[in-house]
């Protein structure tokens, strides 16, 4: 079945996919074909070279072109599928959203540039924002004309969100913000940031925090890219020195920041994780092909690790589907389990890839027997191959988005009811 066999143009944003799907026996097959056919017809011409671009460790690649691709998706009605129709979305069911993310990944389509806006902030504003905030900001996310960064982590409060020290004081109709955020992905390319700041002087931990929407293009904001070991710089440190945001750019009431921030983090573990797993599967298949080609698969230990990696993928998918179906004890616990599963799996795949490649993977592409310029790794001057980049970038998988230690504490304390870890 192809998309053309349906009398309804599924890429038309005026079509409410959620309502339509409930009355169509073969809805999943039609929707799958529609997504697959559209991607095949549109990932051509100027967009053909974007296939596979912009993934983890390569966010710098073809950013302007991928932005145009995202806007092309928006014009065709393929952004914000799961949002309610009244907020510019498509009203798509969870099943349809899963199909879209999986087909998108199978097509090796380029990494999206608007993930933070579409998957995190947008749903948060729909849940907690005022009608005025929704009217102001949601259209810019739908059509990808405004990009967002996340201002959570700080030098002294990485995975410990309750330890943030950035302050905001309401003065003459504006929030005046001072402090520093770090590991702020794509802040140098974004127009706005959603920022957790302490708005109650003398408050501690999760008390007295607020969730603010802050424009980044203003004199009080300084953005400095941080170079990673991969040589790329997709995240930044951001300094607020009397930066301002209008008084009404607070989501929820003053002091509700912890609740809103935790709500946003639940959206982070949404259906897009299944698309992420399709990308993981592609990486694994490519690694298996390499192991066959270079003979590494004849090593019993390598072969065993490749089999375990495949089993790990199956477990990840089963857990994701169980979570999306609502078969969970705790939303917080489910999010933490999912993060532990994929982060550890992907980190281990990076190490496995290095072992499959062998000694050549330790050398830079410019390394020769006569010119040994790459004996000392210089990320500014060495272009990594896909396996070297995978090894280096996945070192961070178990840290960003909440470290392994934090995830295990959440499971222990909030799900299992164990005593809280001693804190200074």
Automatic annotation (TrEMBL):
Keyword presence, Oxidoreductase: yes
Residues covered by the Acyl-CoA dehydrogenase/oxidase N-terminal domain: 31-143
Family, as annotated: Belongs to the acyl-CoA dehydrogenase family.
Record keyword rRNA-binding present: no
Lineage summary: Bacteria, Bacillati, Actinomycetota, Actinomycetes, Mycobacteriales
Requisite cofactors: FAD
Pfam families: Acyl-CoA_dh_1, Acyl-CoA_dh_M, Acyl-CoA_dh_N
Ranges where the Acyl-CoA dehydrogenase/oxidase C-terminal domain occurs: 255-416
Spans traversing the lipid bilayer: none
Keywords: FAD, Flavoprotein, Oxidoreductase
SUPFAM superfamilies (UniProt xref): Acyl-CoA dehydrogenase C-terminal domain-like, Acyl-CoA dehydrogenase NM domain-like
First and last residue of the signal peptide: none
Name assigned to this protein: Acyl-CoA dehydrogenase family protein
Domain named Acyl-CoA oxidase/dehydrogenase middle: residues: 149-242
InterPro entries for the chain: Acyl-CoA_Oxase/DH_mid-dom, Acyl-CoA_Oxase/DH_mid-dom_sf, AcylCo_DH-like_C, AcylCo_DH/oxidase_C, AcylCoA_DH/ox_N, AcylCoA_DH/ox_N_sf, AcylCoA_DH/oxidase_NM_dom_sf, Mycobact_Acyl-CoA_DH
């Amino acid at each position: 079945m192809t998309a053309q066999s349906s009398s309804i143009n599924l890429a038309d944003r005026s079509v409410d996919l959620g309502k339509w799907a409930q009355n169509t026996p073969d809805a999943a097959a039609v929707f799958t074909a529609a997504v697959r056919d559209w991607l095949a017809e549109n990932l051509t011409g100027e967009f053909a070279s974007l296939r596979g671009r912009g993934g983890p460790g390569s966010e710098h690649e073809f950013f302007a072109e991928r932005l145009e691709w995202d806007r092309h998706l928006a014009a065709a009605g393929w952004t914000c599928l799961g949002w309610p129709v009244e907020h510019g979305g498509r009203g798509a069911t969870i099943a349809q959203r899963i199909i879209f993310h999986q087909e998108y990944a199978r097509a090796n389509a380029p990494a999206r540039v608007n993930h933070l806006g579409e998957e995190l902030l947008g749903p948060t504003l729909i849940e907690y924002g005022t009608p005025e905030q929704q009217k102001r900001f949601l259209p810019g996310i739908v059509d990808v004309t405004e990009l967002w960064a996340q201002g959570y982590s700080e030098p002294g409060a990485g995975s410990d969100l309750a330890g943030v020290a950035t302050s905001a004081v309401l003065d003459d109709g504006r929030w005046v913000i001072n402090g520093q955020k770090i590991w702020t992905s794509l802040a140098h390319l974004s127009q706005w940031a959603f920022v957790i700041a302490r708005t109650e002087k003398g408050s501690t931990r999760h008390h007295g925090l607020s969730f603010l929407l802050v424009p980044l293009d203003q004199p009080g904001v300084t953005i400095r890219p941080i170079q990673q070991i991969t040589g790329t710089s997709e995240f930044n440190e951001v300094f607020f020195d009397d930066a301002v945001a209008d008084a009404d750019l607070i989501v929820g009431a003053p002091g509700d920041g912890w609740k809103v921030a935790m709500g946003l983090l639940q959206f982070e573990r949404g259906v897009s994780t299944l698309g992420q797993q399709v990308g993981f599967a592609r990486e694994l298949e490519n690694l298996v092909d390499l192991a066959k080609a270079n003979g590494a698969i004849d090593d019993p230990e390598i072969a065993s690790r490749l089999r375990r990696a495949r089993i790990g993928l199956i477990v990840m998918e089963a857990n994701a589907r169980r979570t999306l179906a609502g078969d969970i004890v705790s939303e917080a616990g489910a999010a933490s389990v999912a993060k532990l599963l994929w982060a550890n799996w992907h980190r281990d795949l990076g190490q496995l890839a290095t072992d499959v490649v062998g000694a050549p993977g330790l050398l830079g592409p410019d390394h020769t027997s006569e010119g040994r310029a790459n004996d000392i790794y210089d990320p500014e001057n060495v272009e990594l191959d896909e396996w070297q980049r995978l090894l280096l970038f996945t070192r961070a998988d178990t840290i960003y988005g909440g470290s392994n230690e934090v995830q295990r504490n959440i499971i222990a304390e909030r799900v299992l009811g164990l005593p809280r870890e001693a804190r200074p």
